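Model: Ready when you are.
Researcher: Fold this.
Model:
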Amino acid sequence: MARIGVLSISDGRDFVARDLVDHIDAATTTLAEALRKEGHEVIVAPEIVWTNELATSQARWLADRRPDLTIFNYAVWAFPHFTMLAAESTPGPLLLMANIDPAQPGMVGMLAGGGGLDQIGRVHARAWGDIADPAVLDRVLTEVRAAKAVRGLRGSTFGRIGGRPMGMYTAVANTDQWMRTFGVDVEEIDQWEIVRRSENASQARVTEARQWLERMGNVHYDGKQLTPELFERQIRTYYAMRELIDEWNLDFSGIKGQPELTTHFCTMDLAEAFLNDPYDWEGPKETHVCATEADMDGALTMQILKLLSGDPVLFADVRHYHADKDVWDLCNSGQHATWYAARSDDPAENLARTHFYPEVFFFPAGGASVHHLAAPGAATFARLTRRDGAYRMHVMRGDFELYDDATNEAMARQSTFEWPHAFTRLHVPATEFLGRFGSNHIHAVPGDYVAELRAVCEQLGVAFEGFGDAA
């Protein structure tokens, strides 16, 4: 649910404004009720704006209610300076909404006000038409969802556990730039805190978790890289992260992992997968975005996708391209939430398709890798990247695919079988993707959120760079 403020703007001549009240009130009520019907909280300014004083006072009144999105409603011609004054007192995402009515030129008022905002560089979106029209409603709701995500970022805290992994420039961002552009603070936490706190969980709690995973999933102990003791150590790292999240009030996080923990303690695969899941062995829970390799821009992309969709977000390496199928193998050590195995609300369905295999030679400390194949379906893929210090978001559509068991296994074994895989047909030529994409990591959620991501970028002042049919 989003909180939406509505401010209706009118003609500045008292004898005209007086006769327009009923028409404006009807249009405002229709707009507000349509949005409430979609489950959102709508706050309507008490008075129609028809003077400069009301433009400021009513906008300030709305701003005090902290809406995620403010809508300026134009049902009639509106003096443009009212828009300018109201916008000055209205921080946050802004949408101009106009009717299309030959008898009342609300569209003219929107264009005049919007043009003035353009002249001063005030970012805003526009919608027009009858809110009862599904296409018009969808345009407005796209801005609502984007604004909710943008406001959800501001004032949040990212927990960066460890430093730069294995020399990855793309995994490290400037904290000043994050605060200025996204309103996100960064809390630096040493990986020693995971090691130290891993002893805090009671043995009974850890044993119960291990036994639940053994019952629900397919645990393949080998007596060396994966033992019950190593499995329990991984479970303890999950509890350590939950402690850090609660203690430092972290909204999302990333764990460096390599090479210190993966060489000398255990892998973070189990912790990362279940933090991103909407459940663990103790029941349903809120998803917590956690990026492997402490990838800051990756985690930030994931948090935006989570705020838009409400679903767990996939994190993967762009590992391999099966040219014969025009299909990518998006694969990364243990990072995919187990929810992607079946995309079911029932953990048993997802974990029945999940295997906990012994870690491979990259990670001598051992532990379980969380293996599964992403269930088929359409998805949106995105990644925040930077060019010459300026943020941009790469966005594309695609589809997760699955084949017969023999083909699935053969394809997975061409990379690292033990890791999770998402076989993906991107709606963009491979030459374009490899020639433009600005990271080794990519992120996704089921569904189509291209329009919402475009709106998010506009609201944040970040360049939107669509690939293929998302351009």
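Researcher: Now this one.
Model:
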Amino acid sequence: MLDTERVGEPLRHLESRILLAEARRAVPEAFDSQGRLLSPVAGKWVQPPAWFNAVSPIDGSVLAELPLLGAAQVATGVEQAAAEFAPWAARRLDDRARVVAEAVVLLHAHRDLLVRILAWDIGKTLPTASNDVDRCLAGIAWYLEQMDRMIDGRKPLGLVSNIASWNYPFSVLLLNVLVQSLAGNSVIAKIPTQGGGVSLTLAFALLRRAGLPVSLVGGRGRDLSEALVGHPRIAGVAFIGGRANGGEVHRRLRETDKRYALEMEGVNAYAITHFTDWDGLGEQIRKGFDFGKQRCTAYTRWVVEKSLVPKFVRTYVDTVSALRVGNPVLGAHVDFGPLISPSKAEELRALIAEAAKQGTQVLHQGMLAEDAFTARQERGAYLPPVLLFGIPRDSELYLREPFGPVDILVSVDSEEELLREANVSNGALVASVATDDPELARRIAKRLHAFKVGINALRSRGDREESFGGRGGSWAGAFVGGTHLVRAFTDGPHPMEGNWPA
């Protein structure tokens, strides 16, 4: 009889190897003779001096080897990618749209493979991986229909550089790349260091087959920053990441005439006062755990009127206790899988432990779903939901986005205190207020320092025509989304909305 507990773990590794073999058959040009991935740069596949392991957070297995290019190689790549701009920009919009449409056909043809590799790449469940890929495909289909009116009277910039976080490589990064190229730019992007590089390399290979002027390079951020941000042939920069790195990119760009759109983290707060719809809030709390709160629009700070704290805690615990955390590709139902790496999970565990030593109360500590793992599987990247109360003001968790399923509850006695605690991070991408009083809701919403504010509802990035940006330190440069994304990386008579130094 087959001992499934004994072979379960090797079978999981076998699945990831089978996926990589499928990828090699689909795009053999993307691999060297030893099965290592190469970098597509200006129509050529570049051999790096070294590789780094793409480790799946699902079980710690090595999914593939990704290229580790040096600074000089990437600088040369920028020159080559910039040379693709003029002939591409000279083509008519309908001709460029035809090429983009051909790329979309190829992406659709390999959609299931992209979804499965993406799940292993960054630990998404198959439904959330499907959503990421499908939002990209639906999004570019919409831009193909709307680009005529959005680009009227505008001209492309040149070579646009994309440096993005790992969490939404298709619906954010790849969609941006497709729209920027449709608008007439050539494009270069960096493989996110923490994950997503395998699925993205496959996607870029398909875009190159169609004839799009797009390049993808892999390497350490500190080594590639000069080429991807400071190089004189870079005409625009789209950045998605943390405030520290984003602030450094902004410092460099604001002294130049380059176009930029920089999305940075902020603590997204949900303020609750004079409120009774706890069933409705429970549904929002559950929805908010999408991808383990590893998203820029995750709500992790709950600012609650003191008299409502017991009802909030009861609603939160009842809702979150039903969430299942486990291996997202095993077949058992789970709501979310691992964080992006064991080191990220360990960082959050250490911050929780330190806060507890300082008197923080752990109001809820979730459990992993034991039946949602293979025998002896590596679990270092898995962290179930945690709710903390009474967090010290000098704790990192008090002031910054945890980027994981760690929620902070803050009790307040007045409207002014509620606003102060909700606005703790000097600007955010989204915020919400829950209250039964419409006038109070409008008054509080106007004073929340977020780009988008929901009333009795979560807010998200949005798709297609909906604009997206940030307030305060959460954003710098042009806003994006719909017409804003096109204007951000083209020149023309229309004003650009954004968060500028002035």
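Researcher: Key takeaway?
Model: Residues 13-265+474-499 form a domain with the Aldehyde Dehydrogenase; Chain A, domain 1 fold (CATH 3.40.605.10).
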